[in-house]
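WARN retry 2 of 3 for item q-0093 after timeout on previous attempt; input resubmitted unchanged.
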Amino acid sequence: MTDGTTIPGAALPTWPELARRAGLGEGARLLLALSGGADSTWLLHCLAESPAPVDLVAVHVDHALRGAASRADRRFCEELCERLAVPLVVERASLDPGAADLEARARRRRYRALAAVAARDGRTVLTAHHADDALETLVLRWLRGTTLLGLPGPRRSGRLPVPRAEGPRSPLLRPLLGLHGADLRADLARRGLDWREDASNASARFTRNRVRHGLLPWLERQGGKEATAALRSFHDALGRLDGELERREPDLGWRDAPGGSREVEVGALLSLWGPHRRRVLWRFVVEATGRPPGSALLAELDEHLARGRAGRWTSKGAWQIALEAGRLKLTPPAATREPRSR
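OK item q-0093 returned
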């Protein structure tokens, strides 16, 4: 495939090859998000076995959601890193297992924990997302009614999706996007290497699991392997389109303002073609808040811009959006603002 995806069953690449594909230079300081699952465990072994030295720290985020199983995951990561002589940092980020939107909240807490560790000594964060994860994300976003702007799945490189008001957005790499999860597991099994299975990955409570274990297999039964291959091609095409639009975006002069706010002059936005302007607005909100805006909010914001009307909105995470005095301004929730000097 054009994005470098490996054919299922093919020989798996070494770390130097994965680093080259991801555009990672020599001497990079790396931080691996290590859950103990098959994918991150495979990537840890790949890094530890690299013929060239790798400056690596692993981070395990313990949400304490599964009692003894969570503690066993942590011990597995500790023992594995000790055997491989890889420094490990354990971050605890407890969550209420009964609260709504558990997956999304856990993901945000993990990214914030990773960002805090990465910022200490300027590391690039590695996650073990692979080609199957990207396909699931595409289907999930389609099912939830996203616009074209939100459809492209995870990229090979980017920035940690955490609110700018909380600190630096560390570089993020997903070096396994060209590989398939089944191949990673098969390689670990062939070599007699253990990993941890999260029982929640089989729970029908989570929509991603229903897509992974229900919808995608059903599509293959109905349309054969060609059905999921066509979806992968669609995913790749969206990624290329999104990348090309980003390359064509002018420097709009976004700037950080006091209190963790972010703003841009309206004139710079109005110079853009409508669909391109909406993409810029979407990215402006995502990069500031760490969360994509809803399609209704995006449409209303763009309409006010085009008509020269002022307005105020509240985005996900209680961020405030203000369009007034020739500026578009994003202000974080009061709880995350920097204290004012007295």
